[in-house]
Design goal:
InterPro entries: AraC_XylS_family_regulators, Homeodomain-like_sf, HTH_AraC, HTH_AraC-typ_CS
Shape: globular
Protein name: AraC family transcriptional regulator
Keywords: DNA-binding, Transcription, Transcription regulation
Pfam family, one: HTH_18
Number of helices: 9
Organism: Pendulispora rubella
Number of strands: 0
Structural class: mainly alpha
Helix content: 55-70%
């Protein structure tokens, strides 16, 4: 009747963190489950189960979240167009990107850019140093 919860072993967690770092570093590229699993040293299906257990989402869901976070950052801080942002973060279709972005944020990428960009006018390198994370995250900053 109760949900069974299993802990992730320390060495397994470290391996999963390596794969998570790969996702964060290569979010703009085409990443397959096999590449992510290989980075962690697991078979694809074992990797999928362990990643979900450790982080509460699948590797694909995590990759999508990283991409949306980066898109929000780009749209808020740079003059990048929606199309440039779409391709920069690894999407191959502007329509798919816009639909997913709207679903996740409640605003279209263009609406997001128009509403948030005027509020965030800090040079990219200084934002992480001088803006408290809690404030930046309320404006749609990255989830890190």
């Amino acid at each position: 009747m109760g949900t069974e919860r299993r802990l992730v072993r320390t060495d397994t967690f470290r391996a999963l963190c390596r794969a998570r770092e790969l996702i964060q570093d290569a979010y703009g590229e085409t990443l397959t489950l096999g590449q992510m699993a290989k980075c962690a040293g697991f078979s694809p299906y074992h990797f999928l189960r362990e990643f979900n257990l450790a982080f509460g989402m699948t590797p694909r869901q995590y990759l999508t979240q990283v991409r949306i976070d980066r898109a929000k950052e780009m749209l808020a801080r740079s003059g990048a167009s929606v199309t440039d942002t779409c391709f920069e973060i690894g999407f191959s279709s502007v329509g798919s990107f816009s639909a997913l972005f709207s679903k996740r944020t409640g605003r279209s990428p263009l609406q997001y850019h128009r509403e948030i960009a005027p509020l965030v006018q800090v040079p990219a390198g200084l934002a992480r140093v001088y803006i408290p994370y809690c404030f930046f995250s309320q404006l749609g900053g990255p989830l890190e």
